[in-house]
Design brief:
Layout lengths: L27 H24 L12 H20 L7 H18 L4 H4 L5 H5 L6 H4 L13 H9 L12 H32 L8 H7 L9 H22 L36 H8 L3 H24 L1 H4 L6 H19 L1 H11 L15 H22 L3 H24 L12 H9 L6 H9 L11 H14 L4 H30 L5 H11 L4 H6 L6 H23 L7 H7 L8 H51 L10
Length: 658
């Protein structure tokens, strides 16, 4: 029995045999439509997530913008059906567009390219005699990766200028980072091709996130005719319509379901309970809706371990551990150990399968057939291996030590595998896992005292693409392959569509985003400022060089202890069907951003548990459209408010700040 995927106990809303027999096929028309929408989506995301640090569309497992554009296309489709029925987009075409917009949104969003824009020009804008950056590390910053022209960097942050005046200073970093990112995305795609059949067909993971786009585009009218769908839509959307107008007109009433107004810390003012810190009981309707489609063990264990983490903080205050160990209770290290253990267990359980993949790649007799895959296993293995080598070479050109570069990217890809498996198995609505990255693991184990400044500078430059793990391309690719499989589509066409979307997005990033920043000023963009200081300031490179850190025994212990505890949870979960704790719920529960949605999971546990207990599978499925309506209602209204903001060029109401 699998340690990570014991028999499912949560009913599924949809199964492939219930899908329509003729969903159409992936066409060039669909790919071209998606490529035409991508620049508009990037401008939208760049203004809202980049310039204003507003509504975080792309930090969710089900990206808001992709769903919004899908609904818009379906509305246009309905009009075309009345006039020219033969011109309508099929389900396969609609979902191809959705998958391309989803991968584009992930890459161009808050945790990826927006973050990259915060490191390219930051050092040469904010260097000063006081921080001594020029003396500490400027000689290790290659002009291939950063903008070194002081005037170009100055106007990038102050705004009120034109990108046309400074584009020449951006050409070389744009080419280098675009190439680096394309190789990274392609390598992850190859890993997905290698593992897809194991996770999708052998283990039959449930892919909860894809249930909603599949239901939305089902040509049969049952889903859209459900009264529950529209009740949920009206409730969730109505709350944010009300709050949006209250934002514009403060005299109007509003319904506070998130933010400081629902912080539970105010009820625990005394020692040691105040050590829990900010404990927001945010209750986003769309989070309740997304959680409804997830297995109960991931819902329950995530909020449970979040509260356990709060008790750890209280225990630290009681015992003095917080004063003795400034990083206590080492949540990122515990989560990192758990994530690595999950990835290694998944690979160990797939060892027989991977052996057959290797035999097929070498041209030896194998039980596996790769005829229906996006590429042959030989091409996938060569692509993954070659891509990893190219990434390692590029990192070494930045200055990363050859001694560590292999470990660094091995940790990165293990983390990517764990996140992709989490989404395929349990479909977490978000997976921040802040500070769970190769930097923190390596520095905890080796410190920075004995490392060369050139190596540490290169590690800082790589901070942007693994600082958070919310907007991650690997699970988006895997879910797109699942959609293609469910619709009986050509995996190669889907892979081509995904790579085209990624290439166009990455190529346009250094056109659209610098243009926005030179106009509005990157100093206005909170995320860019935070990322820059986290990369180069006292919490990053400057701190590593001025205050060298020794290996952290407590952090190392928490890392390995977290891995051992996750393995224990996996063993118990495999042995006992009733075991309620999911190892990834342990990692997620200790993640930084779970404070925005733990309460929604708690509510969903109570509601969904009651439905399944008293109404059974039939009741669960009958209630599903209502919870999908919660997701769609809030998604649509929040996207509309953000579009109003872009049109009037003023920040507007946005509730979701991950």
């Amino acid at each position: 029995m699998s340690l990570l995927s014991p028999p499912a106990v949560t009913p599924s809303v949809r199964t492939p045999d219930r899908l329509p027999p003729n969903p159409g096929r992936i066409t060039a028309r669909a790919i071209l439509i998606a490529l035409a929408i991508i620049p508009a989506q990037m401008y939208w995301v760049g203004m809202v997530e980049g310039v204003w640090h507003g509504l975080h569309f792309t930090c969710l497992s089900l990206p808001m913008t992709a769903v919004f554009f899908l609904l818009c296309l379906m509305a246009v489709n309905a009009a075309i059906r009345r006039l020219r029925p033969k011109r309508v987009l099929t389900q396969a075409e609609l979902l191809t567009i959705f998958c391309m917009l989803a991968i584009s949104g992930v890459l161009c969003g808050h945790d990826r390219l927006v973050t990259l824009m915060g490191i390219v020009a930051h050092a040469h804008r904010f260097a000063s005699p006081e921080n001594r950056w020029e003396e500490l590390f400027f000689r290790y910053l290659s002009p291939a990766w950063v903008v070194t022209d002081r005037e170009a960097a100055f106007h990038y942050y102050t705004g009120g200028s034109s990108y046309r005046l400074y584009w020449r200073q951006w050409v070389v970093p744009a080419v280098c980072w675009t190439f680096f990112s394309i190789v990274l995305v392609f390598t992850l795609l190859c890993l997905n091709v290698i593992l897809r059949k194991r996770w999708t067909e052998a283990e039959r993971l449930s892919y909860p996130i894809v249930q909603i786009p599949l239901a939305l585009t089902d040509p049969r009218p049952g889903f859209w005719r459900s009264p529950g769908l529209w009740i949920g839509f009206a409730l969730a959307g109505g709350v944010d319509v009300l709050n949006g107008f209250a934002y514009l007109y403060p005299s109007l009433p509003s319904l506070a379901y998130y933010g400081p107004a629902v912080d539970l810390q105010q009820f625990f003012p005394d020692h040691p309970w105040r050590a829990i810190g900010p404990t927001r009981a945010d209750c986003y309707p769309f989070m309740i809706g997304l959680a409804y489609f997830l297995p109960m063990d991931i819902i329950f264990s995530t909020w449970f371990f979040y509260l356990v983490g709060k008790l750890m903080l209280v225990w630290g205050a009681v015992t003095g551990l917080q004063a003795l160990l400034p990083r206590y209770p080492y949540f990122p290290m515990q989560a990192a150990g758990a994530v690595m253990a999950i990835a290694l267990v998944a690979l160990w359980e797939a060892r027989g399968y991977l052996l057959q993949v290797g035999r097929r790649a070498l041209g030896l007799p194998s039980r596996l057939d790769d005829a229906g895959e996006a590429m042959s296993y030989r091409a996938a293995v060569l692509g993954a291996g070659g891509g990893a080598l190219v990434l390692a070479w590029l990192a070494m050109t930045m200055g990363m030590s050859p001694l560590y570069v292999g470990i660094y990217f091995a940790l990165f890809f293990l983390l990517a595998l764990a996140v992709a498996r989490l989404r395929a198995d349990s479909g977490a609505p978000a997976h921040g896992l802040a500070a769970v990255n190769p930097h923190e693991v390596l520095i905890a184990h080796t410190g920075t005292a004995g490392e060369s400044p050139r190596h540490l500078t290169a590690m800082a430059l790589c901070h942007w693409f693994n600082r958070f793990n919310r907007a991650h391309p690997m699970p988006q690719q895997l879910e797109a392959f699942k959609i293609a499989q469910v619709l009986r589509q050509d995996q190669r066409r889907m892979a081509l569509a995904l790579m085209l979307a990624a290439i166009v997005t990455l190529a346009l990033a250094f056109v659209i985003y610098p243009m926005l920043m030179y106009r509005h000023g990157a100093a206005l963009a909170a995320e860019l400022i935070w990322t820059g200081w986290a990369t180069y300031g006292t919490a990053g490179l400057q701190g590593w060089l001025e205050s060298p850190r020794l290996p952290d025994p407590a952090g190392i212990g928490c890392f390995w202890g977290g891995g051992a505890f996750a393995l224990f949870l996996a063993l118990m979960r495999a042995r006992f069907v009733w075991w309620p704790f999911h190892p990834m719920g342990y990692a997620l529960g200790l993640g930084t951003t779970v404070d925005r949605w733990w309460c929604a999971l708690l509510v969903c546990t109570l509601v969904k548990g009651a439905i399944v207990r008293y109404a059974g599978v039939r009741g669960y499925r009958r209630a599903a459209p209502f919870f999908a309506g919660l997701v769609l209602g809030q998604y649509v209204v929040l996207c509309l408010w953000s579009l109003v903001a872009v049109i009037v060029e003023q920040p507007m109401y946005w509730s979701w700040l991950a």
